[in-house]
Specification:
Helix content is about 45%, strand content about 10%. The protein has a single domain, classed as TIM Barrel, CATH 3.20.20.210. The longest helix has 25 residues. It contains 15 helices and nine strands. The strands form two sheets. The chain has a seven-stranded parallel sheet with strand order 1-4-5-6-7-8-9. The chain has a two-stranded antiparallel ribbon with strand order 2-3. By secondary structure, it is α/β, with parallel strands linked by helices. Bound molecules: coproporphyrinogen III. Coproporphyrinogen III binds next to β3.
């Protein structure tokens, strides 16, 4: 099927048994790597995203340095609101800032469902370059944010622990909120389809703030839009859905037709399996902060995680993004322990 030298990830997503689980790390291209920090001194964040040569170089860093089984495109979920017409800034130590967020019906006139080939072509150029430079070493994961998580930033205008303003927007102006969620969904479907056309082997939908919603709200505000995205993509590539904290909806997420479901460290493997059923791959779920432990502790804990999943329909990963203060040899210890594992 594929000409990849290492297709462990795709095999597991397609339901095949492999001798060990594939391993990659969410946010594996980033600030814990000195090689990334060097480029960060010279170029702004969106300059790095928009320059295919830089995006390619950063995407490949963790393949060469840490030895993961998959590459994930270097970009950001916030390029979508940018393409829809909102200004997005990345401010050091503050994170993302959207100076003119969506608050009212009038604000909706400032955004649109864009032609992704006009606004996000640089991403597709980067994917083509990455595929060429990877030369079949490992598969490439494309990605986008889930509509609810994107709405969080478009409405709140910045990071938040609660995203209370985004929630208030949904509760006080539901029609507007659903109009916005549908616009983000339509953009995201076109965006992910174009990523696949450019060469992405699989795509992951990040619903980082899905866990802020209770089960009914999650269905109504988040999952019904994720469902549309999975339906539109699933016949082209395997889709992985990571809705952090939304353990209560693993069963309904599995029913979308997603091949993989990301889980965080707050749910044990056996419960996640019980909730999700047997027809889906589980991805996770090492606590990223545990990578700050001494290396022997990391090795022991990674083995315990692998034992808990039993190398059955499992992709080894963290339960959320790697932290910037993790030493590179600790990240390598995580990856090496998976690679040495025999069940
Ligand atoms: O995983 C990868 O290595 C690929 C690249 C990637 C980035 N962001 C690069 C990035 C991916 C997949 C993302 C996804 C993303 N972006 C999410 C979903 C995943 C998650 O962690 O929950 C979210 C919520 C964002 C929004 C975002 N972008 C935030 C909140 C921040 C600032 C905080 C932080 O983690 O740094 C960013 C900036 C960002 N995106 C950086 C990187 C490498 C750091 C930029 C820098 O300081 O150099």
């Amino acid at each position: 099927m594929s000409t990849l030298q290492n297709d462990l990830l795709l095999k597991v997503l397609n339901g095949e048994q492999t001798s060990r689980p594939p391993v990659w790390m969410m946010r594996q291209a980033g600030r814990y790597l000195p090689e990334y920090m060097k480029l960060r001194e010279k170029y702004g964040f969106f300059e790095r995203c928009q320059t295919p040569e830089l995006a390619c170089e950063i995407t490949l860093q963790p393949i060469d340095i840490v030895g993961v089984d998959a590459a994930i495109l270097f970009s950001d979920i916030l390029v979508v609101p940018q393409a829809m017409g909102l200004e997005v800034q990345l401010i050091e130590s503050k994170g993302p800032v959207l100076p003119d967020p969506i608050k009212t019906a009038a604000d909706m006139n400032r955004i649109r469902v864009p032609d992704v080939n006009e606004t996000l072509q640089y991403v597709f150029d980067a994917i083509q370059l990455i595929k060429k430079e990877l030369n079949g070493r490992v598969p490439l994961i494309g990605f986008a944010g889930a509509p609810w998580t994107i709405l969080c930033y478009m409405v709140q205008g910045k990071g938040s622990k609660t995203f209370d303003e985004a929630k208030a927007f949904c509760y006080t102006q539901p029609e507007l909120a659903h109009q916005l969620l549908q616009m983000i969904t339509d953009t995201t479907i076109a965006y992910l389809k174009a990523q696949v056309k450019a060469g992405a082997d699989t795509v992951q939908v990040f619903d980082s703030w899905g866990g802020l919603l209770g089960k009914d709200d999650f269905e109504h505000i988040s999952l019904q839009y994720i469902r549309q995205i999975v339906a539109a993509l699933k016949d082209e590539v395997p889709v992985i859905v990571f809705a952090k904290g939304a353990w209560h909806s693993l069963e309904s997420m599995a029913a979308t037709g997603a091949k993989g479901l990301g889980i965080d460290w707050c749910i044990p493997a056996h419960l996640a399996r019980q909730f999700a059923g047997d027809n889906v791959v589980l991805q996770g779920n090492f606590d990223p902060a545990k990578l700050l432990s001494p290396i022997p502790v990391i090795k022991k804990e990674v083995k315990a995680m692998l034992d808990a999943f039993g190398n059955k329909a499992h992709i080894a990963n963290l339960g959320h993004g790697i932290l910037p203060n993790v030493p590179v040899d600790h990240a390598k210890a995580f990856v090496d322990t998976v690679k040495e594992y025999t069940s």
